[in-house]
Design goal:
Its cofactor is Zn(2+). This is Probable endonuclease 4. Belongs to the AP endonuclease 2 family. It is a single chain. The chain has one domain: Divalent-metal-dependent TIM barrel enzymes (TIM Barrel, Alpha-Beta Barrel), CATH 3.20.20. The protein starts with a helix and ends with a helix. By secondary structure, it is an alpha/beta fold. Strand 2, helix 3 and strand 3 form a beta-alpha-beta unit. The strands form two sheets. An eight-stranded parallel beta barrel has the order 1-2-3-4-5-6-7-10, surrounded by four helices. Strands 8-9 form a two-stranded antiparallel ribbon. The protein binds zinc ion (ZN). The site of zinc ion has 4 residues, from loops.
């Protein structure tokens, strides 16, 4: 049991309105979370807020006591491929804020979406801008800072990275920086065309991911089922087992060598009871083998 928990802690994204420790930790306890993810800013805005040092400390202590690793999800508006100068500028300051707050709360990683080439610009132009904007951010990270975790999207619009193979040019653009990792969202990768529900689908996808990024880059999994079929390019999360991925692929995921030590965090619909049920279901699947 303990071994399996260490191999793949299972938890969820927790709401923190009312205080990181005061709200976030009690929610995590209520759903049985062994790993947590939080927002440290409005996920749909650019406004940044400074933390409350005593909440930060309580949060860090509570996570340490429970042996629960913490992660930050950066705001959704961030797009390093944007043709709009204001969006590009805001993306940098917003991500730097999430990284700083991540360090303050003891987070292991900060998740950021890989973005899109907007305004009719080419992927090459957009990726060149990703390189220009993100490299200095990476260069400023020390060993005490969180990892920067790239989360491929569902492939909607002019997404820069949705299929696993598209991580290759992205990693290249960022010089395969040592603090660069991946957060794989099961719903996104399924929507992007990797059929995790097909026989061997999980193995194929994770083998390819490891071949592209090299070993040890997968740092977090967003465990979400999908309301839509494989390849639909739609980002609609479903509760575990209630979508087109189903339960078996999650069990397979937790025995693949690439997921050794990698936490699973749910971002599924519903409220606390539903989240607790998803966490419990994933724990059952983890015990299967
Ligand atoms: Zn996600």
């Amino acid at each position: 049991m303990t071994d399996k928990r260490q191999r793949n802690p299972i938890g969820g994204h927790v709401p923190v309105a009312g205080g990181l420790a005061a709200s976030g930790i009690s929610y995590a306890d209520d759903i049985g979370a062994e790993a947590v993810q939080v927002f440290v800013a409005n996920p749909r805005g650019w406004a940044t807020t400074s933390g409350k040092p005593e909440q930060d400390e309580k949060f860090r202590d509570a996570c340490a006591e429970r042996g629960v690793p913490a992660y930050v999800h950066a705001p959704y508006l961030i797009n390093f491929g944007s043709h709009t100068q204001a969006t590009a500028d805001n993306s940098v300051s917003s991500l730097r804020h999430s990284l700083r707050r991540g360090r303050e709360i003891g987070a292991r990683g900060v998740v950021v979406h890989t973005g899109a080439a907007t305004g009719g610009r080419s992927r090459e132009t957009a990726l060149a801008q990703v390189k220009l904007l993100l490299r200095p951010v990476l260069e400023d990270l020390t060993d005490d800072d969180p990892w920067l975790l790239l989360e491929p999207t569902a492939g909607q619009g002019f997404s820069l990275c949705s299929q696993v193979g598209e991580l290759e040019p992205y990693f290249e653009a960022l010089g395969r920086h040592p603090r660069l990792g991946v957060c794989l969202d099961t719903c996104h990768v399924f929507a992007a065309g990797h059929d995790l529900a097909a026989p061997g689908g999980v193995k194929r996808t994770l083998d390819e991911l490891e071949a592209v990024t090299g070993p040890g880059r997968l740092k977090l999994i967003h465990a979400n089922d999908s309301k839509d079929v494989a390849g639909a390019h739609k980002d609609r999360h479903a509760n575990i087992g209630a979508g087109h991925i189903g339960t078996d692929p999650f069990a397979e995921l937790m025995v693949h060598p690439a997921t050794e030590g990698v936490p699973l965090v749910i971002e599924t619909p519903g409220r606390k009871e539903g989240h607790a049920a998803d966490v419990a279901r994933l724990k059952e699947l983890r015990e299967r083998r």
